[in-house]
Amino acid sequence: QQEKEDLQEKLKLREHLSQTAGKSEATPVPPKNIDLEMKQLQCKLKNSNNEITKQSTTIKSLKNEVQEKEERILELQAKISRLERDLNMKRHLIEDLRSRLKANQENEKTSNETLESLERKVKALAEDCSNKKTSIDSLKQRLNVATKEKSQYEQMYHKAKDELERKDLKLTNLESKMIETECAMTELETTASQQLHGLAKQSGQALETIQKKLLLTNDKVEEFMTFVKALTRELQHSVQELRTKIKQAKKKGEMRVCKKGLSQESVQLAASILNVSTTDLEDILEDDEETAKTKMEFEKDKEWLQYIYKLLEAQFPFASYLMDAILEKLNEKKKLVEEYSSLMKHTV
């Protein structure tokens, strides 16, 4: 622009000079130099005009670029302000989040402590549960064994009860038969005494008939003797069976009490140390007094049987003594039955 202004001033100056040259003819200037200079100046002017147009286009483009850049700057400034606002908001949010993080960290510490304590409690509860589970399993096994033993004892009790009822029935039948035989014997005694009184008066024929009747009565007496012996043997046998059952029940009860105190493993260990079986160990643990007691009871039964046989071989009257002896044994059997039933109730 400055060059343009300089050239324009020069052109004005030249025009002014040419005008002044036209006016003042007194001072002549050589026309060729002036034309040459004019041409050069015009060329320079054209060049400068071209340059000016170029510069103006570039200026316009630069102005447009500057405007665009200013608009871009405004947009960027607005964006920067928005970003600053966002940044401030984010700073506030970050501070809030930091405060929350601190609070959460503190909460996490407390929750971790509580979680650790809870984990310890859970472990303790799990161990307690496992211990209780093992104890429950062992108790279930014991219960199964106890139920099996109970069912076995119930079967044994029912069998013993049925057998006792049968034997009681048999005993009542035998008692009724004994009464019948006693009545028959008294009748026979009376008839024999009457017949003995009448024998003296009667003839030999009557004597023969009386002898026949006497033979018949002797046969009956012998039959009665065998019946009484069989009855006493059966009674003694039933009493001995009851005693053995009572001993077995007592032994099982004592062994159950012993097994409660001692575990099965300790019993097996003791048996393995003694190199015997568990049944042999149970037999070893039996009391010597019990065996002595059984021997005494066996001797008493033997003496009672011999006493019955002596009574049967003794002279008349022996029915009351025989009745007392049999009633004594029946009372003993009754007591044993009651003892056995009470033992079976306790075991069940």
From TrEMBL:
Keywords: Coiled coil
Residues forming coiled coils: 38-191
Protein's UniProt keywords contain ATP-binding: no
Recorded GO CC terms: centriole; centrosome
Region called Disordered, residue ranges: 1-32
Highest taxon of the lineage: Eukaryota
GO annotation, biological process: centriole-centriole cohesion
Composition skew (Basic and acidic residues), residue ranges: 1-17
InterPro entries the UniProt entry points to: CNTLN
Entry protein name: CNTLN protein
Organism: Oceanites oceanicus (Wilson's storm petrel)
Higher taxonomy: Eukaryota, Metazoa, Chordata, Craniata, Vertebrata
